């Protein structure tokens, strides 16, 4: 069945968070004459994301949006990397590294092309303010932004996928999740959404040959949004 | 203080609901060979909106989104105008008249101009699916769509204005509501938002000289978004 709506994961799928965060950390280091292994810092920062989110999902800590989670994990990393102490405004500014990240090269064009044929919306764990900044910076045009924050649940909780479908008044079967991560796609598939796996072999900075097994079990496989648009006839 | 965010009311302020709904009703009438005073039908349909919304706001009836309210008031109007009976699909199709309405002529351009300088978001009682369709049809580019549906409250409940500010992480004082209706603007002003009154003398189809008293008490007064953009230096 032709989908009516495409929902897009954002971090990794559309934007290159790693290059963006490393660049922001380097700029911070230069401005404040601080040295550290910023690539490792960025990787550790991203690695802190899933466990901190899972604590919210399990109810161990009350709801916090992604800005707040990034900010909390930053405090730990600053100690680990012996950077700082930073004042409040500096911590906020540094956490906002996650608000302006470069899109993968084909994303703005591919998204525009897909938008001519389908309703396109984000479905990201990033909070709304963060997503608004990201989309403005990378010139990504969505019809709607959906955030974990809109539902009080983080992906892969079902409330996120089903919540987006309900707000768009479209059945899950006519909605497709576009993402670069198997766990996200598997959760959507289990709820009856269509799925498209986007290969982003550079997401973690270690260019690797594409492993076709990653895309197994999903409806589409593409190396970017232009390729997905071609496959969907857009 | 310069605002960071502009929030826009939609019906009446950005789109000419009356012309759009009359046109859709007329097309329906011609397709089904039904005659009625479609202009009066459209006015009655709009007039049913505030009381039906107020029943939700008072808790007399459970939460219903605007599509559902439009659909419920349509049933009453079909009887009043002796149109029908219509089947389910026809009622849905007719209610979707509210999903594709023409924007006032300067809106798409003015909004684009304001977006270069400010974060622009809708803040409408229209549900998300409705707003997505409206914006696609009229080519309106927002950074985010906020709906009563996002907050479980209809304007002018404070949860809507403050909810949008919170999700954009911007204080009320740095947010401006742009609207063509005094009650909407007065509610926003009471919460500390900046306000811009947009004159839409044709909203109810009876062209009238502009009454300057309508704009009294608000920060800006403009006869459209291009004029507002000029005044805000955008």
Description:
- The structure is a homodimer of 234-residue chains.
- The first copy, chain A, is α/β, with parallel strands linked by helices and 234 residues long.
- Chain A folds into 2 domains: 5-16 and 101-231, 3-Layer(aba) Sandwich (Rossmann fold); 17-99, DNA polymerase, domain 1.
- Chain A has 11 helices and 6 strands.
- Chain A has helices spanning 17-32, 38-47, 49-58, 66-80, 88-95, 107-117, 128-138, 148-151, 158-167, 182-190, 225-231; strands at residues 5-8, 119-124, 144-147, 175-179, 194-198, 220-222.
- A 6-stranded parallel sheet of chain A has the order 3-2-1-4-5-6, sandwiched between helices.
- In chain A, helix 10 links the parallel strand 4 and strand 5.
- In chain A, helix 1 (17-32) crosses helix 2, helix 4 crosses helix 5 (88-95) and helix 6 runs parallel beside helix 11.
- The relative contact order of chain A is 0.17.
- The A-B interface holds A 67, 119, 121, 127-129, 131-132, 135-136, 141, 143-145, 149-150, 167-170 and B 67, 119, 121, 127-129, 132, 135-136, 141, 143-145, 149-150, 167-170.
């Amino acid at each position: 069945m032709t989908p009516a709506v495409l929902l897009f994961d954002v971090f990794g799928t559309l934007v290159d968070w790693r290059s963006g965060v490393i660049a922001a950390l380097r700029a911070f280091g230069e401005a404040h004459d601080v040295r550290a292994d910023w690539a490792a810092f960025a990787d550790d920062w991203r690695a802190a994301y899933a466990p901190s989110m899972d604590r919210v999902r399990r109810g161990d800590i009350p709801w916090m949006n992604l800005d707040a989670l990034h900010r909390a994990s930053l405090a730990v990393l600053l100690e680990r990397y012996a950077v700082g102490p930073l004042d409040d405004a500096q911590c906020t500014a540094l956490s906002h590294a996650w608000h302006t990240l470069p899109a993968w090269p084909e994303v703005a064009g591919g998204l525009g092309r897909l938008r001519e044929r389908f309703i396109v919306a984000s479905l990201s764990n990033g909070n709304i303010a963060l997503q608004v900044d990201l989309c403005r910076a990378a010139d990504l045009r969505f019809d709607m932004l959906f955030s974990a924050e809109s539902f009080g649940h983080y992906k892969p909780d079902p409330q996120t996928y089903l919540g987006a479908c309900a707000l768009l008044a479209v059945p899950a079967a006519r909605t497709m999740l576009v993402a670069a991560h198997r766990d996200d796609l598997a959760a959507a598939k289990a709820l009856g959404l269509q799925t498209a796996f986007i290969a982003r072999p550079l997401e973690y900075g270690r260019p690797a040959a594409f492993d076709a097994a990653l895309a197994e079990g999903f409806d589409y496989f593409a190396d970017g949004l232009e390729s997905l648009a071609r496959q969907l006839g857009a």
